[in-house]
Write a structure and sequence with these properties.
HgmA_N; globular; iron; homogentisate 1,2-dioxygenase; mainly beta; 5-stranded mixed β-sheet; homogentisate 1,2-dioxygenase activity; single chain; about 270 residues
């Protein structure tokens, strides 16, 4: 009698499942090549830019560095959109925010160099009569360099008591790391949605539009921007092959979209 071997094979990739405090699914890994689709069998097979996409979607290519960068450092993404991102009604200059800056050169009169250690007390949350969302609640503490030189960094705090309603933000200065200390952040990006809790952090790459909602009503925390480079994991040295933050501990959103015909406003930092 012939022997029979029983077995099985995976039917899908590994996803982080939703929880009571986080309703979204994620793929895991740091610096990986991810692919996901909100509607099955939508992504083109064996090519990036077919003559015609399924559902007449628009192909867009977003890159985070020069086209001639080494392959290992070439960070990019293909997006398949319902509408192209270049469709808008024009651009206008907004009033300057005196609490926010990204230029830390001596020519900036608002920048002061101090040899003394500086300590900030907790900033006051906006009053109930104020409507302050994530973008309007950012205040700069320190930094160096300038984003136009593609060198330096900036450190901010944020205090918010309102969600960004019909409004998105795009940081063109650099990658932004957001660390909530109080209250969760529901971050809607062009790549999908992320729920960020205190003790966690989220990184939004340069040039990615995103919107922040406050499921807990208010939130405060820190922001860190890096100009001209990207965040990487440090070498472990004597710790060996595993320890501290492992690549598998990082979560990436899966594709999502909204059907919304109402006008939105977009804000960019330049």
């Amino acid at each position: 009698m012939a022997s029979q071997t029983l077995g099985t094979s995976a039917l899908g990739g590994h996803f982080v499942k939703p929880t009571d405090s986080d309703p979204y699914r994620y793929q895991t890994g740091f610096g990986n090549r991810f692919a996901s689709e909100a509607i099955p069998d939508t992504l083109p097979f064996a090519q990036n830019m077919p003559r015609r996409n399924k559902y007449d979607l628009y192909t867009e290519f977003l890159t985070g560095n020069t086209f001639t960068a080494p392959r290992a450092e070439n960070m990019n993404c293909y997006l398949y959109r319902i509408r192209p991102s270049v469709v808008h009604r024009g651009i206008e200059r907004l009033p300057d925010n005196t609490d926010l800056t990204s230029t830390f050169l001596p020519i900036n009169p608002n920048v002061h160099v101090s040899p003394r250690p500086l300590v900030w007390k907790p900033f006051d949350m906006p009053s109930k009569h104020e409507h302050v969302d994530f973008v309007d609640g950012i205040k700069t503490l320190a930094g160096n360099g300038d984003p136009t030189l593609q060198e330096g960094l900036a450190i901010h705090v944020y205090l918010a008591n309102a969600s960004m309603e019909k409004r998105a933000f795009c940081d063109l200065d650099g990658d932004m790391m957001i660390i909530p200390v109080e209250g969760r952040l529901d971050v809607q990006t062009e790549m999908g949605r992320i729920m960020v809790k205190p003790s966690e952090l989220v990184v939004v790459p340069r040039g990615i539009r995103f919107r922040v909602s406050l499921p807990d009503g208010t939130s405060r925390g820190y922001c860190h921007e890096v100009f001209g480079s990207h965040y990487t994991l440090p070498d472990l040295g004597p710790l060996g092959g595993h320890g501290l933050a492992n690549p598998r501990d990082f979560e990436t959103p899966v594709a999502a979209f909204d059907i919304d015909q109402t006008p939105w406003k977009g804000k960019r930092s330049l």
